[in-house]
Amino acid sequence: MKKITTSLLALLGLASACGQNYPYEVDSFTIKNGKTVRIHALVHSSIRIEYDGKEIEIDPVTKLGEKTIDYTAMPKADYIFVTHEHFDHLDTAAIKRLTGDKTQLITNRSCADILGYGTVMANGDILRLTDDITVEAVPAYNTTEGHLQFHPKGRDNGFILTLDGLRIYIAADTEDIPEMAEIKDVDIAFLPCNQPYTMTVEQLLHAARMVKPKVLFPYHYGQTDVSGIPSLLKDDGIEVRIRHYE
Q: What pTM did the predictor assign?
């Protein structure tokens, strides 16, 4: 894996500049070409990524519980990725606010059918967006009996974004599926931790040890206590960062 340098931008406190009403963080990664990737922890499974003048939004959602994101205060997106159709991932209002003349929406078949448009990717598809940005759609599904109906196999996507060699794995709503063992050279991973819809802490640990990212962000964790994950993975060479992805 390539060497990356990282720093945390201290944006704790009221983030009124980005229209949020609760504390949040931005993690900054300087990659091999000297450019910077900034990852904004918005809420739950909503992630904003800035890279080389490009705005990338993952599962943008305007409101979740008491937390609200004002997307009108952010730039229009170059790319919007939607992993699946559940309300905490697919929000037509947020998509509308982020969509400009050049915005490309990338999603699965069911979301494209709901929205009436979108570039459709299925598990295994690879799409080159620019000379230095590619995306791969990977499986995301439930395996526990009694939970299979939440995220059936083959319907939803996780995404692997590669930004000039920096590989970011956004797992979406999934359990620790065997396909994770085939995902290699991950620099940054977002793994969900929220039963019954995604993983237990134990499943997340198993998933992290399969994927072996340099940096792990537990996300989509709701009321699950993820505070112990850093110490549980300290001997695995994985840096765990807990951000506001409740």
A: 0.92
